[in-house]
Amino acid sequence: MISPILSQIVTRLVAEGPGRFRLASRGKTGIIYVPSHLVTDSTFPLGNGEQVLVRIDGERLIVEKTRKKRGSSIL
Fold first, then answer.
1. Angle, vertex CA 54, rays to CA 52 and CA 41, nearest 5
2. What is the 3-state secondary structure (H, E, C) of 15-75?
3. How confident is the model at residue 1, as a pLDDT?
4. 51 lies in a domain?
């Protein structure tokens, strides 16, 4: 019999897929393309048009939801 903790680890899947990066036409911003199967997955944490915080940590690009504080702007 599999322990409850082990079964949670085994059944938790991490969705991933290839994406790509492209500079916008004037090079002042960039666009990251995320595979559609990721953004349509029920576990995808972002909604359409949602504000995010993007940061670089070594070789990783981290995208997080921003937390809007009461009475202040998002960024």
1. 55
2. CCCCCEEEECCCCCCEEEECCHHHHCCCCCCCCCCCCEEEEEECCEEEEEECCCCCCCCCC
3. 53
4. yes
Q: For residue range 15-50, what is the model confidence (pLDDT) as tens digits? A: 778 889 898 877 788 888 888 888 888 888 888 888
How many separate domains does the chain show?
1
| Greater pLDDT, 56 or 27 | 56
Examine residue 74 and state whether it is found in any structural domain, yes or no: no
User: Is there a contact between 63 and 50 (Cβ–Cβ < 8 Å)?
Assistant: no
CA angle 26, 27, 32 (to 5 degrees): 120
